[in-house]
Specification:
This protein is α/β, with parallel strands linked by helices. The chain folds into two domains: 201 residues, Alpha/Beta hydrolase fold, catalytic domain (Rossmann fold, 3-Layer(aba) Sandwich), CATH 3.40.50.1820; 73 residues, no CATH class. Helices cover 39% and strands 13% of the residues. The protein contains nine helices and eight strands. The strands form two sheets. The protein has a six-stranded parallel sheet, sandwiched between helices. Strands 5-7 form a two-stranded antiparallel sheet. The chain is globular.
Amino acid sequence: MLTQKKSGNRPPGGPRGAQDGAPLFFIPGHDGAAIFPPPVARRVGQVRSCHDGLRYPGLSGEEAPLNRVEDLASCVIGQIRRVCPQGPYSLCGYSFGGVVAYEAAQQLRASGLDVEELILWDSWIHSSITVCGRSMREAMSELILRLKRRDATEKRRFLCRLFRNKWKSHAFRCREKLRSMTISPLPGASNGLKGNMRERSGDRVAKASIQAYRAYSAKPFAGDAVLFRAAEAGGVFNKSIAVEGRGWDTLISGHLEVIEIPGSHLDIWEEPTISILADKTADWLRKRAIPTSHCERNSARDEIKI
């Protein structure tokens, strides 16, 4: 696993794991940076070389974030090719990261490079899901239903995760509201409220990613993919009406395999569901494993630099 330098120029992450098969690159989600969760790194690393630590521009606060999926994909391809110049490649992404991985696969193939696997972890095209809020009564009924399916330990984890995510969402909306209410300080003022409400670089990247996601118009992909789909669409406070293939079935002209994972979208990235996801992903890769050498080991140890 690469370690981050004090200068911050080198993000954390891969390579690690088995050397057979195309190296697997983990594409960040809307927050702009991601490393493989430990359960995924352990299990998938047994069958495939895992690389992460890719980053989107804007996280340092010194450059503007990108608000087009095509540009984000091009950015991560540049980082990937510094590690493994020729390919072939395997790409994976969770949620919005899957959308960027899809576009990156398109661009790599258009450049004449091979993408052996495209792994979508509960990712979907924006137009394939309609989200609407639940009433308080509906939300409480949904909460009780989901708690009944869990044992005592899982109930505690679920409730902690639910309210943690709700608090984060509420805090983000409050910051946005305060920022919109601030006014420019009077001439000569040294400590206006607007100066104290500077937008966090992470928030700017997340907002740009959401804008990119909503505007993205995906083109058909002449290849195969696997979708690990959450069994429960929507959450406690919102319900989702989703098409079966999450929009990918109309775009992928090759074989789209759909593997269902228990729980909801947020459950997938938490225990115990993430271990199930890791096992199923490793099993899927093991079945497809082709024992070939794709990158020189020295090249695979190169830094990923922005």
